[in-house]
Amino acid sequence: MRRAERLFRVIQYLKRAGQPVTAAAIGRHLEVSVRTVYRDIAHLVGSGVPIEGEAGVGYVLRDAYELAPVTFTFEQLEALAFGVRATAALADRDLADSARAALAKIEAALPEAHASRLRDAPLYAFRSDDTPAAPDHLSRLRLAVREKRKARLDYASIAGQQTERTVWPLALIRWSHVWMLAGWCELRGDFRSFRVERIDRLALLKDRYPDQPGRTLADFVARQTGR
Q: 204 pLDDT exceeds 70?
């Protein structure tokens, strides 16, 4: 990792943390030594970045600080273009429109040489004839995940069994040709994944689910990856 990119990531990490973070924690996040973190912090402070704290206690970035606009490598521009095209091909209309709008904002802020590279990136994603359209409930499920709202759904299993469940929606996953909802199922008392197109009826509840240990998205991912 180049030093400029690492310094940028240190600032982003401190901004997201919103509280004092030790050099050891920063080092683990960036996979560098604590000594490297100390040098990076000293460089950033010397450059005028408002980082407060000290070694052994932790560092915090004042809320008012904003990063200057950043440039992208050509490979990063191609990744952005491909991401938007894949979203447009595979996601629901609202998410596809939002992706295009975000790309337009990025393009408007770039020098013309970079903007043209973004527009003309030779990476595409298309829906094949046998790829189903985005499921009807995808947009509302994204809202449920974002707002941590419980969802009640009527679900038809592959075997044809109909069940009514209350689920804590944690994430939406594109798996091969289908969209999957990952969540904590109150009926089974465990994590479950549901094919979105098999959800017959969906109701978003006013109740919001807590970040309960053992039932979070991180726990689900750890279960799937064995970590």
A: yes
